[in-house]
Description:
The chain is mainly alpha-helical. The chain is built from six helices and two strands.
Amino acid sequence: MADQAQGSVRSLQGLTAILAALCLALFAWIYAGFVTAFRNAAGQQMLDARIGGYEQGDVIAMVRYLKDHPDLAAILHSMYLGPELVFPLVRAGLLFCLMRLIGPGGFFFGRPLPPGATTVIFCLPVFYGVVDYAENIAGLMLYPPAMPSDSTVTLLSSVLPIIVRLKFLTLVVTVILLARFAIFRYLSPDGSRPS
């Protein structure tokens, strides 16, 4: 039984290592192949590369800019239909595997973590992946070669900044929880045992 549990943990560790390597490779491809090419050709960052986020006016300005620059729109479109088709899934899978390896546990405000909270915590990486795909779909619907109506541009340009903030908020909360649970495991008497 212990050998089976050990094998299961090793399989999960192997999968986590593969997903981490894929994440790095996809990130390098996106950055070197698309973000850098867009920045060099446009003299500005694509909205997806702005870590600080952006507002509705930025989205509308980018839509107008890309209508006049089809070569830059093609770069963005290729990114969405290339590595961004897989990157959110791989990243969400990595976060989920890390969460599984570390294992949520411990105490909040002097009480043990309830089972319902554990379920919600495991849903965070999945939610992150869904929100990331929603951002990509909105981009495909909004930016050329798509030809959205004015009402669609208004709607998506107001929703997209909210989606991006939600995506980064989910990512930050997940990383903070991972760090917290890792520290708790390390400090606990049986911390060397992954769950």
